[in-house]
Amino acid sequence: MLNKVPVQQLEFQLKKDKLFDFSGTIILQGICGVFGDSGAGKTSLVRALIGLDDDYSGNVSFAGEVWQGTNYFLKTEQRRVGMVFQEPRLFPHLDALGNLKIAKHKNSLYTIKQLAKALDFENLLNKKSIALSGGQKQRIAIARAILTAPKLLIMDEPLSSLDKHSRALLLPFIKQLAQQIPILYITHSMQELFYLATNMLLINNGSVEAIGEPLRLFLDPKLSLAKHAHSGLLLTVDSLTWDDQNAMLQGKVDGQAIYLAIANTRQEQSLQIKVESKDVIIATQPFMNSSLQNCLTTTIEQIEQISASHILLTLFLGEQRLQAKITIKSLHQLQLEVGQVVFSYVKAVSIIGELP
Amino acid sequence: MLVDTFSTQWLSELDLSAIYLTLKLAGLTTLILLIISPPLAWWLARSKRFFRPFVESLVALPLVLPPTVLGFYLLLSFSPDSYLGAFWLQMTGSGLAFSFSGLLIASIIYSLPFVVQPLQSAFVNLDKNYLEVASTLGFSRSKTFYKVVLPMTLPSFIIAGALGFAHTIGEFGVVLMIGGNIPGETQVLSIALFDHVETLQYEQAHILSFSLLAFSMVLLMFIYGVLQKRQKRLYDA
Known about the structure:
The complex is a heterodimer. Chain A contains eight helices and 21 strands. Chain A is α+β, with helices and mostly antiparallel strands. Chain A folds into two domains: 8-228, P-loop containing nucleotide triphosphate hydrolases (Rossmann fold, 3-Layer(aba) Sandwich), CATH 3.40.50; 233-351, CATH 2.40.50.100. In chain A, the strands form four sheets. In chain A, strands 7-8-9-3-10-11 form a six-stranded mixed beta sheet, with helices on both faces. In chain A, strands 2-1-4-5-6 form a five-stranded antiparallel beta sheet, covered by helices on one side. In chain A, strand 5 and strand 6 form a beta hairpin. Chain A starts with 7 loop residues before the first strand and ends in a 5-residue tail after the last strand. Chain B is an all-alpha fold. Chain B: Belongs to the binding-protein-dependent transport system permease family. CysTW subfamily.
């Protein structure tokens, strides 16, 4: 039913004073996440890319069309990009329908009616925009951007301030939409990133630190990701079965059993969990008397110092990897070294599953 | 019939023609100002050029100067000896001084700040975010103006227009300097009133004065009504 969008390339070198120096080439197919800490320059990058800030020097081209070059600057309104800002920015003098009608382009893939149905705002169309809630406004703002028939859609943390209902509705929708329109999706949520993106731009300190597949970048100890609060990896849990007696979900990670305390509402055979590196406890011998349930046998693959007092261990499970953040004191006490087999106790996990 | 009785009893033919002339002058002045002021106000609100304060001061001058000073300079530039006056004479065959056209030009200059300033402050306060949305929606400049800027600043346009209109009706000094007192051509209401007082026609003066007072009051109430509504809207949003 859906045609894959042609692969398109976005190429840029953009510089502003000593603050920002972005450069990179991204293949845009589906969703490319733009990930980084707050203040790293994610929003600045996309604003410069689509021409909302014209005080950058350098060049930008998209799908063979030059957007910015030496003495050349194509105005934002001529770049045919859709933008969903962090806040909805609906025109206050128009009602919801007015906001959509004003944006509708004849080449739009969707009609207002289809979008109203897909994003569940059919009964809000005649409401003044000030009468809508934040989530309702943002759904309409997303529809408005799609109606302009953009060649590239940019979403700047569109879900960051939304209610659960809106998020649950929007995430699958955005994922599906990306099969028709390439999307650059700014987020600082690792769960959103892994749910949506097949490619990512890592922004750090005003420049592009890395471009690549999200999991690969998260596993790369040389990148800033490993040193930040979001260090922690995703694991796929398969062979799910429901343990009636203990009311827990049982599954396997690379063949090793794991128990998850979640409701049995799933039909799928597998799900994804995120294990924070601070939630992994390392032991050289199994604990006998403890409440810790999930113990995985792992091999130390890498030992890296990430601060004066802390070490990040990369632990190999067979196919997948875990990370554990321990103190240097523990490292010396346990005399850990690369290649050693250790028991990794997982204190807590968060479920990625279908939706963050 | 009623109007006839009223006019023959209360207002002389000359007074009526002065009222008509005043309304025509104020109407045309406002119309022209509403066309030229938005781009000027937009430029003043957004430009970062070094000579912007100079242009801004020039626009605001009529607020500060005694109208007679402005009138004096205008009179000089309207004379056939000056470039403007000579050019006008060549183009139209008639002089600018003591003519309705001259009065109109003078009124436009004199009332310019009253129209430009409310618009300028509205444009300064207009949230830049909405203009960014307009450009990401692919709007051209004119579409952005008509579909976003104008509806969002409409109360300021109404206030600007009403202020320009009211201010033109009330002008006296400039008209006296450059228009003189030619009935049907340059004798506006304020001049006609001055005439009545000078010739001790106090009853006529009363009638004209009171009409002007009542009219001004109604107009101001309208302006402040719009302002109040706008404030309420800002409060709601």
